[in-house]
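Now for a concrete sample entry.
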Amino acid sequence: PEINEMSKRLNLPVKFVDGHRVTDAKTMEIVEMVLVGKVQKDLVNLINVLGGKSIGLCGKDGKLFSAKPIPKMKKFGLIGEVKSIDPSILLTLIDKGFIPVISSVGADSNGQNYNINADSVACSIAGVLKATKLILMTDTPGVLAKAKDPNSLISKLSVSDVKKLIKEKVISGGMIPKTNSAVEALKEGVSAVHIINGNKEHSVLLEILTDSGIGTMIVK
């Protein structure tokens, strides 16, 4: 939302196709400015105020991850994907007690910046780390069988279910890249991916401790 707000303030168009932001060179500058310069620092500050010890990163910091363009998404502009990950800086920081906050901006070998789907970055990193559980927070309950009906929450899905529901357009819009990223994370060794509503109080704690079905869990 902050990227949209800043783009409108600068009279730049805001356009999404299948959940992907159309990103020209000017929009890419806004994406980096907002995600790395504002949202990330706000989150780092909040964690620090609450007693944690946080630090902000993007793909370019310590060469955490490199980016490459997605040929089939050329029409969307500077939309990229993770090419490779070097988790060494991440492991060093975690070992020292830091909580990393990672923005989904990366660059290719020529220094060209790319806007990468944040869920895709999170899933790639979780895969490299062989995480037991990955939690994706959003502003909806999870995958819904009926759009806009929170009572139609699907609490558990398999990889084949995800593919079927995308084909049937039950999973649509921004939930498409989210669930596709979850599937990729499972393929890379993550045990389970949970999509939960970050607006629900204690949602992360409840999901971690109980697998309570308050969101959607995707497993192999």
